[in-house]
């Protein structure tokens, strides 16, 4: 799924122009990101839950050279599908 796909769906369902649909898709995506930053997650009923998880610092291996590399602690996004989504797919 891409922003272009979301834009096309909005344009087809509402009958608005491509520019307005692109703006709406951009606002939708930025609103989801802001919600995840503020609350650490976002839930779409009957679709699933996006959550922000912290990862610990760790040591990894460079596959080309085989030497150890330090990986910093960071945050990542996880997705858990709803039971309805699992059944339909």
The residue ranges in which pLDDT falls below 50 over 5 or more consecutive positions are: none
The major sheet is characterized as: 3 strands, antiparallel
Question: How much helicity do the residues have?
Answer: 40-55%
Structural class, by secondary structure, is: alpha+beta
H and E string? HHEEEEEH
Question: What percent of residues are in strands?
Answer: 25-35%
Mean pLDDT across residues: 93
> What value does the Rg take, in angstroms?
18 Å
Number of helices in the DSSP assignment: 3
Structure description:
By secondary structure, the protein is an alpha+beta fold. It is built from 3 helices and 5 strands, in the order H-H-E-E-E-E-E-H. A 3-stranded antiparallel beta sheet has the order 1-2-5. A hairpin with a 3-residue loop joins strand 1 (41-44) and strand 2. Helix 1 (3-14) packs across helix 2 (18-39). The chain is elongated. The two termini are 15 Å apart.
């Amino acid at each position: 799924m891409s922003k272009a796909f979301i834009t096309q769906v909005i344009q087809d369902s509402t009958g608005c122009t491509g520019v307005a649909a692109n703006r709406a898709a951009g606002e939708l995506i930025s609103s989801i990101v802001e919600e995840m930053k503020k609350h650490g997650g976002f839930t779409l009923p009957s679709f699933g839950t996006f959550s922000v998880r912290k990862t610990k610092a760790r040591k990894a291996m460079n596959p080309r050279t085989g030497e150890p590399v330090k990986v910093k602690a960071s945050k990542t996004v996880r997705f858990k599908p709803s039971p309805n989504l699992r059944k339909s797919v």
